[in-house]
Specification:
alpha/beta, 6-stranded mixed sheet, 5-stranded mixed sheet
Amino acid sequence: MARVLINYVQHNSPALEEATASEQRIRSELAALEQHMQQHNPTLFAAITAPQPEPDVRTLYPLIPAKTLLIQYTYLDETLLIWGISQDGMQHSVVQTIDERRLNYYFEQLLAELSRGQTATRFIQEISHLLVEPFDHLLGTYTHLIIVPYGKGNTIPFSVLTWRKQPLIETHTITYLPSIIALQYLQRIQIDQDDSALVVGNPTKMQWRQEPLKPLHFAEQEARTIAQFGPSTLLLSNEATVDAVVKQLSNHTIFHVATHGIIDARYPLLSGIALANGEMLHILNLLAMRVNLKLVVLSACETGRGETTKSNDLISLAQGFLAAGVQTVVMTQWAINDASTQALMEVFYTHLHAGASVASALRLAQLALGHYVPKPTQPAMPHLDPGNRMGSLDTDDAPTLSNAAPYHWAPFIVVGL
């Protein structure tokens, strides 16, 4: 495993001396990681380090939840391959000829326009035609979609894509998996009153490569609010150090992070979460841990983005947490509005602690935000009443998203079941 990751860094990093850590340090940390994983998670260690036969996809059917359609996308020799699978077996497969550069252009433009606050109508229509319409006859049968994207498809929120002229978020809950194989390692979680949270908010003196990062004042308010939903440990400002976080992680089942996420395109394994006094919790740190976390919420900028490898896997913060044993990760796909995030997270946790699944709670919070968008300079946040402002998959009067640009709500996604 160490050799594979080091080769990746070498081939994708022509100027190693500019890295935060030296090659020798990386080798040392990877060796320690390999030893730790071999001792504490031999199944995952074997899956990574030894050639494994591809599982018979039929053995994965029973692992797909009820009323769920898993849609996997891949690209091979100018051909886009899509197939939909449920617990009852293969439901539909599609083969389309399309230039990969054209497809990637659509993805890039959709992300660029949404992250600038634009509607991206053209690219939503183009991508929906390619990726959603082939399953038009099936989508009405299922209430939940599991998306297994390919390459740059990992960077876009499928919730904005349309089915029968409606955004998918209005008709389905949506989660993502890095691979269909992840079905073997993940379980759908339920949060109850015994689950406690480690909540980190707005660490002081955040830095990235000696450059200061702006304070996140709404993030501190967000963290204080989230900590009130149940048993919790709250780490704010100068308390939010790497040592403090690492010591507390094993004591909790929820980890909520309201800080800056750093994506290092050159050295993806050194991507991480900005903490106090210029410290970072890197993906390398996460891989060296084995935690009992049910849920990680990365309420930070661009925590879902990562580096696409030559095999079109994506190394992101979510991947690091999943490899460390986390079952479900909520993350973001572009730099987000601080105040909007605070409003959304309050409603998300309200539904989560009321018994909703993670995907349902996030969907309902996103729909709620469609009816109220706080201004970035607004000093106080009005309370969003979940009972009056949210719909349900089981009702016909679910609210629409006519009042909010996708910029505010669409970047939040769930990785898991």
